[in-house]
Design brief:
This protein has one domain (5-118): Arc Repressor Mutant, subunit A. It is built from 4 helices and 6 strands; from the N terminus they run E-E-E-H-H-H-H-E-E-E. Strand 4 and strand 5 (105-109) form a beta hairpin. It is α+β, with helices and mostly antiparallel strands.
Length: 131
Amino acid sequence: MDDGKTLHFEFAETAKAPSAAAHIGTNGTNGTHGAAPKRHKPEKLMRLLSDRNLKLLKQIRTAEPKTLAELSRISGRPKASLTRTLARLSDLGIVVLVKSKGRGKIPKVACDRVRLEVSLLPEDEGPSGNA
């Protein structure tokens, strides 16, 4: 049995623009995590799921760094760009930045996998094309 957390992004085209709602659940469920899900553009998620960032997420999970400086050293990334990347991953719910002593934050991976669901029809259209 799989009891990991899956972050589920549902992409749907609306009258305004394509966007995604994020939900996090256990065992593949689609329960919401916290407040109402934020809306995101699909391109933002796809850029953040680059090979380089997937490697970073694995490093966070396995090394469990206690500071951003430690993660910077482990990953070989400058702290400033690492901070920006982690903020974007946090905005999408993939990473959680836990407060530590002082102003520091400890990065934690919030889910075990990300699932993408893409609707090919606008939200206001049913299968027959009627609004």
